[in-house]
Structure formats: structure tokens, C-alpha cells
Predict the structure.
Amino acid sequence: MENHKNVTDFVFMGLWENRQVELLFFLLFLLCYLAVLMGNSIILVTITCSHLIEQPMYYFLCHLSLMDLCYTSTVVPRLIRDLAATRKNISYNECMTQLFTAHLLAGVEIFILVSMALDRYVAIVKPLHYLIIMNRKRCHVLIAMAWAVGFWHSIALLLMVLSLPFCSPNHINHYLCDVKPLLKLVCKDIHVVSILVIANSGMVVVAIFLVLVASYILILYNLRTRSSAGRRKALSTCSSHVMVVVLFFVPCIYTYVLPAGSENRDKEISVFYTVIAPMLNPLIYTLRNSEMKNAMHKVWSQMSHSELK
């Protein structure tokens, strides 16, 4: 474990090695982060300050927006800072904290997406029993389970990484502390550890994605018996969910299913679930949702009236 103790910090190699390109993307990612903060904050305020919070779908959407805010804030501010810095270093303890926090919040987000799929499935397949099955107590339990599963996943990953000996050079070929780029710095055979990472992250993500795809196929199958108006409304809601699921899961599968030693474009692909998906989620859920747009207009009108008084 001596080599492990010798590494006190890591240096990120970042997304690009061209300084001019990095300064250009500094501005771009700053604007993206501001869009994430604004979009998800608007959704949070709109839902919590309106009657929508009483509906399970919007209750889960509120938690999803909170996760997007928190998850992006664990990664993007440092990325923005590093794009403007000449040396992109992070201490060993900060690196482990980022690894744990990012995987905890991502794990919670994944199971919130599962809860949202379950909510839509019950609403469409068992509409008469919807309010009984998706009561507020069950919604709270699902969120608590999401946090429990997320914590189990991230603590298992953290304990595994903490037990590994790291060698110099301490350069991480990424813009964040993630398990796969860290494994490339380990000074022992990582074959078994790489399999464990694929099992803990890759296979779990694939299994959940397949379950979600199956649930939406069942939803589409059950929509055959609905009226054309009901079918359109259900398809509009479900298509928003499917877009969010694809945006988040497909890049995750690409990143975590392949072994750590393989040469791939992990750091570029990871931008989809660290920046792009959290930025687009508010647009996806509001642009095609009249209920959300009406609530947004009502809440922000009330706020502007109260300010004028």
C-alpha cells in the first residue's frame, strides 16, 4: 500500500489539450451550467408551489430536477474552473469525495427514472387503481429506496477504489474522478477489479435500461384500447420519459460496459450524462406538457403580482 500513500493528488488531462479550444468551451460549459441551474430551478419552484406536487408524476419529476442540479454541481463547476486553469489538479481526498458523490447522485437519479416509468405503467395499464397503488406513502418509499440503492452502489465502488494502490504518473485522462480512468493508474493487475466494476455499474445499468424499455413496450401495447385523445396524451408523456431515459442510459452503457483497459471515448461521451441530459431534461418535460406550462405561467404570474404589491 506504499504506492497508494505516495499519491496525494491527481492531475486531470481534461477534455482537450488545445488551450484555445479549452477557453472556447469554458464559455460554452459556463452557459450550459447556468441553463441547468435555471431550467431545473424553474421546474422545482413550479412544482413545489403548485397543485402539481400532489401528483406522483410531478413529485418524481421534482426529485429528478433536484438530482440533476446536485449531480451537475458535483462535476461541472470544477470542469469550468479547470478549463480556465493551467494546472488541473485535485487532491486524493477530493477525488474520492467526487467519485462517491457523483455515483451516489447518479444512482438515485437512475432509480427515480425507474419510479417514473412505474408511475406511467400503473397510470396507463391500471388506471382505476392508480391513486391506490401510487399513493403518497408509496412515492416516499420509492424515493427512500432510490437513495438506499444509490448509497449501496457508491459505497461499494468507493471501498473498492480505496483499497487499490496508485502509481505515478498521477495523470487522469478525464475531467472528473471516475472509476475507469482511475483504474488505469493502479499499479497491480486490474482484471478482477475491472470485472467487478462492470458488474457493479455496467451490467446494472444495462439491466435497468432493458426493464425500462420493456415497461414502455407494455405501455404502448396497452394503449391500443384507448381513445385517440387518450392515446395522444399518454404518448406525449411517455415520449418525454423515453427521451430522458435514452439521453442518460445510452452514454452510461457505453462508458461502463467496456473494460477499463480498452481505448474508447469515455470522457467525451460522459458529457452527455453530466451536462447535456440535465440541461435538456427541463425542456423535454415542459415544451410538450401543457399542464406544466399552465402551472408555470400561474406560479410565476402570482410571484410577479406579489412583488408588485
